[in-house]
Amino acid sequence: MSLPSTRFAESDALHERALAFVRAFESGEGAPEPFEALACDLARFQASHVEGYARLCRARGVDPGSLRDAHEAPAVPTDAFKLARVAAFTPNDARATFRTSGTTIGARGTHEMRRPETYDAAALAFGRWALMAGLPGKAEVLVLGASPREAPDSSLSRMTALFAEKLGWTNAEDAHFVRDGVLDLASLDERVARATVKGESVLFLATAFAIVHLLDALGGASFRLPPGSRVMQTGGFKGRAREVDGTTLRREIARAFAVEESAIVGEYGMTELSSQFYEATLQGGEPNVYVEPPWARVVPVDPETLAPVAEGEVGIARIEDLMNVDSAAFVLAADRVRRTPSGFELLGRLPGASPRGCSIALDELLGEDRRVGS
To answer: In 3-state terms, what secondary structure has residue 233?
Structure first.
């Protein structure tokens, strides 16, 4: 049975408020309302309609009705997406379902969306800002990854397909060059050559691990991209035997693809979010310093107490995402981050078991229903 129409109406109104942040950003205007106002209203909505979040609020002694500061709203650990449904709607109302990659041991995290167009709008707006600066119009978008047809539950595949369709010249299927798990290097080389002849810049999108495989295949040879091209790299080496230092990888990408290091843009995102974060290297920013769009915030918190740490200190990432309307607007990850004057540094995952603060929050969210999803 579908949700009552009143809940849909409440959700739709929140989506429209979230999308207003995106439209304001695209038009160069200020935020349509204070971040805190929408964040607190999202906490109230989710506490009313996501059972686990209501339990978490009760366990923390938080009254969502009296929230005035988003930092007071409890955050949902990413592990919760593996063990329970984190959604304010029924499974029948999900129009997109994303799952984590499965590179870690155990269940895959699942993030369902009722209105994936909100995800699309935010991803496209901030992706265009981060990746297309200085390019007139469109670029030849090439993706070292699987298309949505091959990976329908991958949020990254959806995002790269969206970029291919809206920022590039070809359809999404033709922009992806990992097919049946195999890199089609010959076709990729042909497309790069064609773009070079036509004088088109390339927007090359890939995971760090896929780029390392490509570099290994090149064996020191170059894979020159046309002038004005840029490379987006995302993801790390979680669960992989082969790792490459970030500075070394950036240097090797610049050499092999014949691009400036400033044209290499790191992206940080996760299945449990609807927003992404980018290095602002094309805008003169430093490598490994990521910036947020106006509709998201990253707050380093103590791994045990979950309280914000002092400016400049390292904590784990508490992410406040206004685009996560129907799931969790406040997400707690085990990634280590540190604020800088221009953004936040990404310092890798906290080693070992789940941080104590995350584990406690997970227990409080699941309550007596730890069996769900296990």
So the answer is: strand
- Half-sphere exposure (Cβ direction) of 306: Cα atoms closer than 13 Å: 24
Q: Model's pTM, two decimal places? A: 0.93
pLDDT tens-digit series, residues 275-297: 999 999 999 999 999 999 999 99
25, 293 in Cβ contact below 8 A?
A: yes
Taking 70 as the threshold, does the pLDDT of residue 313 lie above it?
A: yes
Amino acid occupying residue 45: F
* Distance, CA of 166 to CA of 194 (rounded, Å): 20
- Write the pLDDT tens digit of every residue in 117-150: 999 999 999 999 999 999 988 999 999 998 999 9
Nearest to 36 by CA among 224, 297, 229: 297
Place of tokens 């085990």: 334
State the Cα–Cα distance between residues 209 and 207, nearest whole angstrom.
Answer: 5
Q: Under the phi-then-psi rule, with left for phi > 0, alpha for psi from -120 to 50, and beta for the rest, what region is 96?
A: beta
Cα dihedral: 270, 273, 274, 280 (round 10): -60
Q: Which of 286, 230, 278 is nearest to 258 (CA)?
A: 230
pLDDT tens for each residue of 58-71: 999 999 999 999 99
Residue-wise pLDDT tens digits, 71-106: 999 999 999 999 999 999 999 999 999 999 865 456
Task: Judge whether 346 and 276 are in contact, CB under 8 Å.
Answer: no
Identify each DSSP E strand in the chain by its residue range. Answer: 76-77, 96-99, 110-113, 140-144, 178-179, 182-183, 202-207, 230-234, 264-268, 277-279, 289-291, 296-301, 314-321, 330-340, 343-349
Number of helices followed by number of strands (H, E) in the chain: 11, 15
From the list 1, 19, 14, the residue with the least C-alpha distance to 275 is 19
Give me the mean pLDDT over the 323-348 stretch: 96
Q: How far apart are the first and last CA of the chain?
A: 25
